[in-house]
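Running co-folding for nicotinamide-adenine-dinucleotide.
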Amino acid sequence: MRLKYKNAIITGSGAGIGKATALRFVEEGARVMVVDVNGEDAKKTAKILRDAGGQAEYQQADVSDFKAVERVVQATISSFGSLQILVNNAAAFVFGKIEETTAENWQKVLGVNIIGYANMVQAVLPHLRANGGGAIVNVASVSSYIAQPAFVPYNTTKGGIMQMTRCLALDLALENIRVNGVCPGSIFTQASENHMKYIGVSVEEGRKLFGQGSPMKRMGEPVEIANGILFLASDEASFVTGAHLVIDGGATID
Ligand SMILES: NC(=O)c1ccc[n+]([C@@H]2O[C@H](COP(=O)([O-])OP(=O)(O)OC[C@H]3O[C@@H](n4cnc5c(N)ncnc54)[C@H](O)[C@@H]3O)[C@@H](O)[C@H]2O)c1
């Protein structure tokens, strides 16, 4: 029980990596607030967590909306009494080369992936401070430091998240609030299926193509990222802050 007596908010946990993380967290004893812009998916994840014997609540919220974020944090405190962990995971996936993007696209991707992460951190900080510390894990990407073709808006925000993580880690270290990032490679989720559709390949072809990018010759599964997030959120990582854990099957070995 690596997260016993810990309460966590996980954004974007209605699906994919966030959902797998929520399940690993309750398996390790945490109470989890499932947050997703898709309320039905959030509700379904919370039910899966409870069916697995865990304690979970859910909130429908768009992380780019600060008022909605404040409501999520208040609901978490009302339900669980305190908060120790934030996992910033929700993302907007905006594909395209620069000439294909619009001001609206940029507002969307910056609103969710950058402002959304910052909103969550601002709203949880007083509650982490009230415990004398806490852990924040920001889900970044290998595209935080390598470029993917025709994926300018999303890649730009993932680079920004990596730097936000470093800045927060530095500013909050003395308060015992650790801030770390995970950098997933190609992981099989709805988002990667949408990416396959965007480049015009079938799921079968896409799994092969995206898997080719790593020396392990496969895509990763969401739980393989969840396990990294779990480590960084747990007290096992008590001296780790400002770090990025790359989980990509070796795709970015240089
Ligand atoms: N799948 C990959 O290959 C991959 C690779 C690198 C990084 N990542 C990162 O992992 C994280 C999770 O990705 P995933 O593949 O599980 O995606 P996903 O699309 O499967 O799940 C993302 C979830 O976030 C929710 N969401 C989207 N916008 C939101 C908003 N504004 N407010 C609240 N919830 C919102 C969605 O409804 C969805 O349930 C993201 O930060 C992504 O950038 C994924």
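Result summary
The first strand starts at residue 7 and ends at 11.
The chain has eight helices and seven strands.
Job closed.
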